[in-house]
Amino acid sequence: MPHSPPDAWPWRSGAAVDPRQFRSFAEFYPFYLSEHANRTCRRLHFVGSSLGLVCLALAVATASAWWLLAGLLAGYAFAWIGHFGFEKNRPASFKRPLYSFMGDWAMYRDIWLGRIKL
């Protein structure tokens, strides 16, 4: 089931929204998606998450925790480039780190399932 288009979300009007106002992840996720309306930003998130998974696999295969650090750095570097360079917004991870992390993986899943265009 595709998500509603970003222009249908009320917070895309330009008004500042504090991500801490959401009481559940179910409330937060549509906002999270609205903060990823730019296709290049979504693509960078997807690449960063994919690299993070590769690094996780390498950490398990080599028993080296350094790959975990590399995975976190790759994931967040790609995401922040997407936000600051293309989406022109501040990542919600600064105010809602857990929900944002969950949103990254929910969006990653939804891209794979064809619910969100890459």
UniProtKB/TrEMBL annotation:
Please, which domain of life does this record's source organism belong to?
A: Bacteria
Q: Can you name the source organism?
A: Xenophilus arseniciresistens
Instruction: Give the stretches traversing the membrane.
Output: 67-86
Please give one Pfam family short name: Mpo1-like
UniProt-recorded name of the protein: DUF962 domain-containing protein
Arranged from A to Z, the UniProt key words for this protein are: Membrane, Transmembrane, Transmembrane helix
Q: Which InterPro entries match?
A: Mpo1-like
